[in-house]
Amino acid sequence: MEREELAAWLRLAMAPGVGRGTARRLLAAFGLPQQIFDQGPEALATVAGAAQVQALRSEPEGWAQLVGVTWAWLQQDGAHGSRRVLTLADPGYPQQLLQTEDPPLMLYVHGMSLAEWPKGISIVGSRNPTPQGANNAQQFGRSFAQAGWTVVSGMALGIDAAAHQGALEGGRPGQVATIAVVGTGLDRVYPSQHRELAHRIAAQGLLVSEYPLGMPPLAENFPRRNRIIAALGQGTLVVEAALRSGSLITARMAAEQGREVFAVPGSIHSPQARGCHELLRQGAKLVETAQHVLEELSSAAPARVATAAPAPATGPAAESFLLQALGHDPVGLDALVARTGTSAADLQAQLLELELEGHVARLPGGLFQRLERG
């Protein structure tokens, strides 16, 4: 991309009051942005309103500075992964996103070089998952990557991060293991504690944003970027979600885009499972293993892969009476005393041992939950 071309696209994207819909209509009517700005007001008025025409005939505030910053960012290509700006006119623009109702005018991309966009599966869920939910997300991510799929998520806390980490563990050398679609400019990392994760994703996958450099983490931008997460996956898997969760927005957008929606069921007592259960009532496919998803998405699924299904426990813990008494829902100490007839002091000691062995997680509110590992 030449600097003049970049400048024209940024000017179109920044024009006050000219949204993505009007911008796409202008592109359809006149061609590339340079050609739009060559038009007189009468021609522009055939597509845009009076205020929009006036905005198009002026340089947006901060435009020249953003052109310089973005051009300098692009010149760092190769230092820590490839850096590109893909426009609607770029043949490298992801076709699965181009075919949606509201594709971004521009995509900022940082990471591995691509010959074509990989087949993806989106994983979303709670930013405050249960330990089992995070474990499940990581195992699903790992299994999908091992099967040759790219895991798409949003690099948020909780389920997103666990899915990315699992994919990075399961990806093969040279494979685009995971794509993080973020809600800020790519020169920022949000949340900041994910800086190391972002570096790993840039090395083994892609960081993607529709927002210009310097864009801070604004609340309204995150639900909007969810349509990109949904579009880059052939299906969307919701691992844990509360009823009022952004993950349900992603699931709805995926369904509207004609993608499959999958949900992992959970305890009827867990608030983090209620969003998934609502999706299941609305027709999402119930899945317990990665293979369930792969079989739905591909009629020629790869050979059976390691799945996120709980594996039979082995070793001494397999025989633990206490693990059987715990069941699979969060439970308090008083309930365990009643179930086992064991004193609270003895139970505390046994629970600590199981916690240290990774078989039990301690939850807020004095609850304990059995963990299953695939």
Automatic annotation (TrEMBL):
**Limits of the Smf/DprA SLOG domain:** 85-297
What does the entry give for GO biological process? DNA-mediated transformation
InterPro entries recorded for this chain?
Answer: DprA (IPR003488), DprA_WH (IPR041614), DrpA_SLOG (IPR057666), RuvA_2-like (IPR010994)
Limits of the DprA winged helix domain: 307-366
Family stated for the protein in its record: Belongs to the DprA/Smf family.
Name of the protein: DNA-protecting protein DprA
Q: Which organism is it from?
A: Ramlibacter henchirensis
